[in-house]
Design brief:
Layout: E1 7-11, E2 17-22, E3 26-31, E4 36-42, E5 70-71, E6 98-105, E7 108-114, E8 127-136, E9 139-147, E10 153-159, E11 162-164, E12 171-174, E13 179-182, E14 188-191, E15 196-197, E16 202-206, E17 212-217, E18 220-228, E19 232-237, E20 256-269, E21 274-283
Antiparallel strand pairs: 1-2, 2-3, 3-4, 5-10, 6-7, 7-8, 8-9, 9-21, 10-20, 11-20, 12-15, 12-17, 13-14, 13-16, 16-19, 17-18, 18-21, 19-20
6-O-phosphono-beta-D-tagatofuranose binds near residues 89, 160 and 258.
Length: about 280
C-alpha cells in the first residue's frame, strides 16, 4: 500500500475506524465500516456537503444514517423477498472494508477500499468490488463491480448521498426531467416538477440519468452532482416520517436531501465485464 501524507486513521470508542483526510483542496472523513464517506468539505468555500444524523449509529449495529451509504447488489428493502428477510440496500454498507491503497496526487488524495466479502444471502455470484474515492476540489466516488464468474448476473446499486442543505424549504434541484415513480403514491408515474422543490415526504425513482444536477439553496447554485453508470436518480426525504426512524430526530429532515446516483432497473453484467457507478460532488460554478 502506498501511504499518503494527507491521511490519518482514528478509532472511536465502539471500535469503528475512520480515515481522516486533510489536503490542499479539502477535508473528508470516511468510515471503514461501510466504506462510508461521512464528510466532505472543500476548502474553496468551507461548506460541508454531506449531512450525517446526530443520532446515527456509529457502533456497527446499523448502517450509518447520512453521508454516502453504498447500496449493492440490490436497492431497496426486499430484493424480491419478504421485507426483513434480507438487509435493506444490500450488504456492503454493514461490513468493514480495508484500505488497499492511498496516494496523494496534485489533484488530491485517492483512496481504494475493498470489502471483506461480496457473496452473502441473496447474492451468490463471484465478483470483485472496489470503491475509489478521490478527495480534491471535487469529491469523486466510484463503486466498481467486475464479474469474475462464468455466467451473467444482475445488480442494482446506489451512491445514496445525503446532502447537507441549509433548509429544505429553500432548496431546489435543477437538472432532473421526465417521469418518475412515486413510492409514496403507490408507484404512480408522474412528471418531474419545475422548479423542483421538496415539501412533503418524497421517495422518487426518476427515469432520467440526469448526468448534471445542481442543488440550489436560497436561489444560489451551491453544489453540482454529476452521475455516470446509473440508469436512474432517486430523490428521498422522509419528512415527518423521520420521527419514526431510531437514528434521526423529528426535525432532521429539514437539513438533508438525498440525491442518489442509482441503478434500479437491473444491470446485467457479463463474465469479465466491469460496471462503474460514479458520483462527483463539486462546488457549483
Ligand atoms: O433511497 C430511498 C430509500 O430506498 C427509501 O425508500 C428509504 O427507505 C431510504 O432509502 C432509506 O433506507 P434505509 O434502509 O437506509 O433506512
Amino acid at each position: 500500500m502506498t501511504t499518503s501524507d494527507s491521511i490519518s486513521v482514528s478509532t472511536n470508542q465502539d471500535g469503528l475506524s475512520f480515515i481522516n483526510v486533510d489536503n490542499a483542496h479539502a477535508t473528508a472523513k470516511v468510515s471503514l465500516f461501510g466504506a462510508h464517506v461521512m464528510s466532505y468539505c472543500p476548502k474553496s468555500d468551507g461548506k460541508e456537503r454531506l449531512w450525517v444524523s446526530p443520532h446515527a449509529y456509529l457502533n456497527g449495529e446499523k448502517p450509518i444514517r447520512g453521508g454516502i451509504p453504498l447500496c449493492w447488489p440490490w436497492f431497496g428493502h426486499n430484493h424480491g423477498q419478504e421485507k426483513g428477510t434480507l438487509p435493506s440496500h444490500g450488504f456492503l454498507r454493514t461490513q468493514t472494508w480495508s484500505i488497499a491503497n492511498s496516494k496523494d496526487t496534485s489533484e488530491g488524495t485517492e483512496l481504494t477500499l475493498l470489502p471483506a466479502f461480496t457473496k452473502a444471502k441473496g447474492f451468490d455470484h463471484k465478483c470483485e468490488v472496489k470503491l475509489i474515492i478521490m478527495i480534491g476540489e471535487s469529491l469523486s466516488v466510484s463503486l466498481i463491480t467486475t464479474n469474475t464468474d462464468d455466467h451473467e448476473f444482475s445488480i442494482d446499486c446506489a451512491l445514496h448521498t445525503y446532502f447537507n442543505v441549509e433548509h429544505i424549504s429553500k432548496t431546489t434541484i435543477d437538472g432532473i426531467t421526465g417521469d418518475y415513480e412515486d413510492k409514496t403514491r403507490e408507484s404512480a408515474v408522474l412528471t418531474t416538477p419545475t422548479p423542483y422543490s421538496v415539501s412533503e415526504e418524497t421517495d422518487r425513482i426518476h427515469f432520467c440519468k440526469a448526468p448534471n444536477i445542481t442543488i440550489v439553496e436560497d436561489g444560489v447554485r451551491t453544489t453540482e452532482v454529476t452521475s455516470s453508470g446509473n440508469d436512474t436518480i432517486v430523490v428521498w426525504n422522509p419528512w415527518r416520517g423521520a420521527a419514526s426512524l431510531s437514528d434521526m430526530d423529528a426535525f432532521g429532515y429539514k437539513h438533508m436531501l438525498c440525491v442518489e446516483t442509482t441503478v434500479t432497473q437491473g444491470y446485467g453484467l457479463q463474465p469479465n465485464e466491469t460496471h462503474v457507478l460514479t458520483q462527483v460532488i463539486s462546488t457549483a460554478k
